[in-house]
Amino acid sequence: MKDEINSALSFREEASTIDVVPGKSLLSVKHVSKAFDDQWVLDNVSLDVEVGKTQVILGPSGSGKSTLLRCMNLLEPIDAGAIWFSGQEISAQLDRAHLVRRELSMVFQHFELFPHLNALENIMLAPTRIKGMSRVEAREKAMVLLEKVRIADKASLYPDQLSGGQQQRVAIARALAMEPKVMLFDEPTSALDPEMVKEVLDVMTSLSEAGMTSVVVTHEMAFAREAAQRVVFMEQGRIVEDVDKDAFFSGNVGERAQLFMSNML
Amino acid sequence: MSDALSIIAGYLVSWTFFEAALMTLALTLLAMLFGMLLGIIFALIQESRIKTLRGVVLIYLWLFRGTPVLLQIIFVFNVLPVFGIVLSGFVSGVIALSLNQGAYMTEIFRSGLQAVGKQQRIAGSALGMKQSQVMRFVVLPQALRIVVPPTGNQFMGMLKESALVSVIAVQELLLVADQTASANFRYLEALSTAAIYYLALTTIFMVIQTYIERWLAPRKHGAKVSWTQRLLRMTAQPRSSQ
């Protein structure tokens, strides 16, 4: 089953269009700080996301993980530092933010499908309305994506007729429809019932294995272990660990990350 | 009594009353049309970040929701000529009612826009939409559905409110009924006729509102619904909600 999806989820041609050498950083967070009401939520955070890699961000709630993710696609303004993407300082050109976001797709904790559109229309909306793709082409692509996330048979159903896991898979398809260079996942399984977590993680794992550059904020250790190349551990707005997955899971980390892991497992 | 009934029947089919009913309907539809236009524009302004314009809208809301409609009608009809703007009773009535209605529609549209959650807007932005695109493709389609029931109420309110322009001699239902009655002192018949017309019109509005609500409701059972199917559905029984 998984092989089948992997072959379908070929994003290699996508990656080849990126004018950055593989292995080099595609998205960089440089010394970013951000405050909400006098409280630092991000404190001098630096992070590099490499092409084709999956980076998992772990950490206790309130550690700034989601804020960091939202800063990456400029949904949250930063107070200091810079965000670089594809060789450009995107945080310095906020008037172009909407263009940047077409290449940095996001998947949300609560799915945020548009309730007035069915699954297919949710996926087609952005390609047709803002990319100017023809409806015929957008429909074909949307159906391919729905097949990839394995709910082609639900194409005509509305979000409130879908389970949480199904909604999240449609949301992933919707994000992929913009043919982004990076996928940002903001706790994509936190709002799901346990039995639906796997179906979403399977899709995400397939994407990672197909070489989609991803940043995933999650509490799913199993996903980090299976799909990630790098693991970042955050606490109180700071990056405490930023290491290879193997180093992280072999316990080659500091005391705080170890304590966090022992609480998770 | 049968005497009264036959007189009412006669009034109902008379051209005078029919014309007056058309006048009432025209006042209502025009005032609602302009009121809704003003409402959506002002609601969008209030959602925007342009402070001066927002201030202007606030003053407008304060003025038109804070004074009686009757005063506004008489004001437009009697005060504007002082500044050289002479308008017919009908135009004055439409202007006053539209401005008044615009204030209420602004509030209705604003609450509709606000009912679409912040996360939905963020989801639109995250797909690469500009603010105007988020508004057009994500917020407005959802907000319009929310504002249908209160807008329906406003329609019916306006139909009745339009009777107020009788004070500036617009030949609408109430004035015509009153004039007819004062000629022969048959108030029961004339006023009953006006009441029947009002009830007929409000009933039509209610039915239309029901259809619009059903039309806009998320279409279950999948596939795209053609216009023919929608028209057919109008004649069918209301589907029980799932």
TrEMBL record, chain B:
<keyword id="KW-1003">Cell membrane</keyword>
<protein>
    <submittedName>
        <fullName>Amino acid ABC transporter permease</fullName>
    </submittedName>
</protein>
<dbReference type="Pfam" id="PF00528">
    <property type="entry name" value="BPD_transp_1"/>
</dbReference>
<feature type="domain" description="ABC transmembrane type-1">
    <location>
        <begin position="21"/>
        <end position="209"/>
    </location>
</feature>
<dbReference type="InterPro" id="IPR035906">
    <property type="entry name" value="MetI-like_sf"/>
</dbReference>
<dbReference type="InterPro" id="IPR010065">
    <property type="entry name" value="AA_ABC_transptr_permease_3TM"/>
</dbReference>
<keyword id="KW-1133">Transmembrane helix</keyword>
<keyword id="KW-0812">Transmembrane</keyword>
<keyword id="KW-0029">Amino-acid transport</keyword>
<feature type="transmembrane region" description="Helical">
    <location>
        <begin position="57"/>
        <end position="76"/>
    </location>
</feature>
<keyword id="KW-0472">Membrane</keyword>
<keyword id="KW-0813">Transport</keyword>
<comment type="similarity">
    <text>Belongs to the binding-protein-dependent transport system permease family. HisMQ subfamily.</text>
</comment>
<feature type="transmembrane region" description="Helical">
    <location>
        <begin position="194"/>
        <end position="212"/>
    </location>
</feature>
<dbReference type="InterPro" id="IPR000515">
    <property type="entry name" value="MetI-like"/>
</dbReference>
<feature type="transmembrane region" description="Helical">
    <location>
        <begin position="82"/>
        <end position="100"/>
    </location>
</feature>
<dbReference type="InterPro" id="IPR043429">
    <property type="entry name" value="ArtM/GltK/GlnP/TcyL/YhdX-like"/>
</dbReference>
<feature type="transmembrane region" description="Helical">
    <location>
        <begin position="20"/>
        <end position="45"/>
    </location>
</feature>
